User: What shape does this take?
Amino acid sequence: MGLNKRLINQEGVSGPVGTDHFDIITYTGNGNNNRSFSSLDFSPNWVWFKNRSIGSSPSGPFSHSLYDTFRGTEKELKTDSNQEEQNNTDGLTNFDSNGFTIGDDPGTNFSNQHTYVAWCWKASNTTSTNYQGQITSYTNVNDDAGFAIVKTTFEGGARDIGHGMASTPELIIGKKYGGGGGNWSVYHKDLGNNQGLLLNSSSAVNSAYDYYDEAPTSTTFKYDMSGSGGNIYYLFYSVDGYQKVGSYSGTGTTSSFTGFGFEPRWIMIKSAASGDWWIFDNVRGNNKGIRANLSSQEDTTDADANTNEYRINFLSDGFQYEIDNSTNASSALNAHNVTYIYLAIA
Assistant: This one.
């Protein structure tokens, strides 16, 4: 599919074809150390793997495994850890023209006792050098999808960083991948510029996690991380008919949250209060949540001890949080009067 192809959804909103920019691959491991997937309509710039099962030989659970074209193949980050980038020669070994090649690491492809998901994003095949900030940054931008990867090689304190996007970023996920590592810092437009979250933690929003100091602008964002070492950032803004960075107030009951302008295929939700980062997609199924901040296996139940529900249904214009077997809503997804942030992608 061409990059500029667009679809008209049920609400009459024109948006990019989702599979031109983001797609989901599920598979069963086979232990092959040179296994390729070629079902994508693009060459991915960011691939996020998760071993969904515990399995055996070896037994799990297993960490998330993230790779991007800026840091290169075999360079792994884990959203459930604050450690620096790890060399993994058996992880993602190549970014291909319509997919990727992996080795036999337990995090990506161990054996037929393990099932996996790979979430894949397209940024751009062109890297630009950006001088709009106080330090040089390197950007890989896909404005059709409201997504960019930005890399800096030195921080040493608060710095304005050029992002190269056509619109102001609404969600920024940053990670110090060298120099000993550090927390995954998160800025979200609906939390304000003096509050932040950590992707590798269930902690509530806190001013202590305000690594971004102030709201991003149309050209730069400010990031404050002490010490030297490379930093990588994944940036998002809303795109009509394709992607939405937003929030909602919990109701404590079965409820629908709409107004997205598209049917999401993937959604990540986090409570502004204490709670895990829950990821759902319509390929794995609506009651199969994965927690970004934990190495836990995929949650395949509708209820936790029959008291808290972890089930969502994808709708044509958003999603429904559903309570099946109890009267208590999940505090992680829909507690009464609690604010929840999300990123949703068609």
